[in-house]
Amino acid sequence: MRHINPKYIRIAGITAAIIVVVLLISGCIAYSKRETLLQKAIYKAKLKAKRDYNLDVKIGSAHFTGLSTVAFSDISVVPYQRDSLFSVKKFNVSVKIFPLIFGTIKLADVTLQNGHLNLTNIKGVKNFDFLFKKKKDTTQTSHKVDLSELSNNLINEILYKIPDNLVLTNFLTSFKDDTTRLNMLAQTAIIKDGKLASTIKVDDGIAQSIWHFDGKMHASDKDIDVRLYADGKKVELPILQKKFKVILNFDTLTTRLTRVTNSNNVTKIYSYLSVKNLLVNHPGLSTNDIIVPNGAIDANIFVGENYLSLDSSSVIHLKKITANPYIKYTLRPVKIYELKVHTGWLNAQDIFDSFPTGMFESLDGIQVAGKLNYNLNLFYNSSKLNDLQFDSRLDKDNFRIIKFGKTDLSKLNSDFVYTPYERGKPMPPVVIGRKNPDFVPLQNISPNLRNAVMTAEDPSFYTNRGFVEESIRKSIITDIKDKKFKRGGSTISMQLVKNAFLSRNKTLSRKIEEILIVWLIENNRIMSKNRMLEVYFNIIEWGRGIYGIGEAARYYFGKDPAYLSVGEAIFLASIVPNPKAGLYAFQPDGTLRPGLHGYFNLIGRLMAVKGLTSRDTSAYGFYEVRLREGLRRQMAPIDTTIADSLMQQTDDEGMGVAPIFEESKRPNFLQRLFGKRDTTTAAKAEEKVKETNDMIKERIKQEISALKDDYKRRIDNVDTTGKTKKEIKAEKKRLKQEGKDKEKELKSKMP
I want to staple 377 with a disulfide (CB 3.0 to 4.6 A). Which of 168, 263, 358, 391 is the partner? Predict the structure, then answer.
């Protein structure tokens, strides 16, 4: 072993001694000057608050009481011309010395007594609006913020400011606006030896309760496990119902932070959130209370240089089932939104048993067997909205229904009683079946009407499984463009289920329940397509108080549904989205308003391309449609603009073509005087033809897409019972060729 030269040891020792002496001298100087340094720091902080935020900060006294402890008293913060924002009587704080040497401020001990955080919003004037004002920046910079670094620094800043030891007494947080108030008084909050215990008195002017936060709190070590609960009752804020019409309460809320790492430009936050006996009620969510007895999520949040994501390693726990969500929001260079959900194969009964109570009433008590696997994929690039990707699939493995729940989904196969609702109120019940003289069997309904309605509402009705993904995708695009839920993408199957089994309330739970019932009916062959279409025509509304096509055909035209012309059929198809406005389509003499001319051409051409009617140059019966004479006498003249507006107010549920009303412009006086031709009408007609051709192409593309999906499912689910590998292969080959032939046939109809 080589010996170190004693000369070098002496040099190292002298150097270390010099460093220690320098540090001691610096420490002595800093200690002797610390009061002066403290007052200068306070002075600068006050100036900054005044300059940047117009805040008047006052401190009664501030001085050191130990090596690293500062004692403050009588602190107040008042925004300019606003109510007082913050005040505290006594505030003592000490920092850890060792981290401070390396430039990191970590709080060791905090004592706070008699504080008040007062938030007000009176007549639109907030005493905290300075928080939302952007700071003036005269410098020009192209520097992009690294979200990973920013989030890591922010987490450290927050967690390091939570002290190892805390003694807090009588700290009041209050909020008040023109109609509500909320007071939360932390009577005590203590952190000692990594354990948190607190008592908070909550009063929102409607009810009072005592809340508790307690658990493990090692904030600087990024190790937190805290739960929230109330004494003798649920945690609840009635103010939420008053202000936002939402009822929300729960027994216990638990949150954990287990780890935070930062490497390779990614900050990873590993957390957990769970809730017991959560109750939610909101008019947009459901008409009933929705109860989740036990729900949780292992949330692994990843923040990169330009994105924020909930990683696919996260797990949602809901009663007996689990699912892996993936959510990603990319900010640069363009905004990109991604959403994925994957469950893997789960026992079907576990899935139905895990639905929140009160969410899907018609499925309560259902018994099923087999397995299910759900996958969702949504990808949206804000710079390429029309390329939005959407794929939602619920795959089955030997799935079957053993017993129906609260609602018998097979009841539509025989005569049944249907009760329509208007604005939430039940109307007189109607028998859907041969006992009703207005009931019309499918074979007695004019093919013109069947074809017109399917063309307008659901062209691939006989080939789809209740859903058309392309229509849903387009409805999402429309909703994003219009920034509201405007288009529903409902097929005929979905419209039938909505009318026959569910309320007319437009809630999220009803829409999901509608989708589930359609999937159950279509994938278990509970009803034939012909029976579904038959019930559909006999159950939907065709006018104010007019239900079923038998009554509708006599009401508008005084004839049997079997004898409806192409024009009459297209008219009836046009009012399906908004049946109550049906009469507004007519003029007092019984003819149709000109605004429907383009719609007739569109639906007529779509039907003609499929060979469902003959090609026509006179708007497919538009000029032959006449309202029953008895109704004409009841009609009062109405302004064209008002009538067209009323007819366009659809229920936004369908996936089909809604009428668009346009009035053609005639040449002005000078144009007629000097013989200028009316090129406007011709140009518009040409444009209409182009639009119609584009619509036809789009419809055929949708049908091809649905056809491919259908044959893929059929190939993947070929019955292998008692067949050899060669026979199975031959069957798959036959189905594949059959699908190609049908696809070729559809492509041949392209205009």
Answer: 391
Residue whose token pair is 């923040």:
303
d(CA 119, CA 107): 26
Contact between 747 and 704 (Cβ < 8 Å): yes
The stretch 239-257 carries a mean pLDDT of 91
Give pairs for 738-743: CB < 8 Å, separation 24+. Answer: 738/711, 739/707, 739/708, 739/710, 739/711, 742/707, 743/704, 743/707, 743/708
Q: Could you tell me the two tokens for 133? A: 């004002």
Residues 363 and 330: their CA atoms lie apart, in Å, by 38
The pair of three-digit structure tokens given for residue 308, joined into one six-digit string: 């924020």
* Residue-level length of the chain: 751
354-408 confidence digits (pLDDT tens): 999 999 999 999 999 999 999 999 999 999 988 899 999 999 999 999 999 999 9
Which 8-state DSSP code applies to residue 654? B
Residue 645: is its pLDDT beyond 60? no
> Distance between CA 9 and CA 632 in Å, rounded?
114
DSSP 3-state helix, strand, coil percentages of the chain (rounded to 5)? 40, 30, 30
* Residues 6 or more apart in contact with residue 677 via CB below 8 angstroms: 667
Could you tell me where the beta strands, DSSP code E, fall in 42-98?
55-64, 69-79, 86-95
Question: Which residues, other chains included, contact 592 with Cβ-Cβ below 8 Å and sequence gap of 6+?
Answer: 571, 585, 586, 622, 625
Q: Omega of the bond prior to 333 within 30 degrees of 0, cis?
A: yes
User: How many angstroms separate the CA atoms of 575 and 201, rounded?
Assistant: 57
Q: Of all helices (H) and strands (E), which one includes residue 321?
A: strand 321-330
Residue labelled with tokens 């994501």: 309
101: burial class by Cβ within 10 Å (0-12, 13-18, 19+)?
exposed
Spatial CA neighbour of 560 closest among 698, 438, 393, 671? 438
Mean pLDDT of all residues in 308-321 = 96
3-state secondary structure of 48: helix
> What is the predicted pLDDT for the residue at 521?
94
Q: How far apart are CA 564 and CA 590, in angstroms?
A: 16
Do 636 and 583 touch, CB atoms closer than 8 A?
A: no
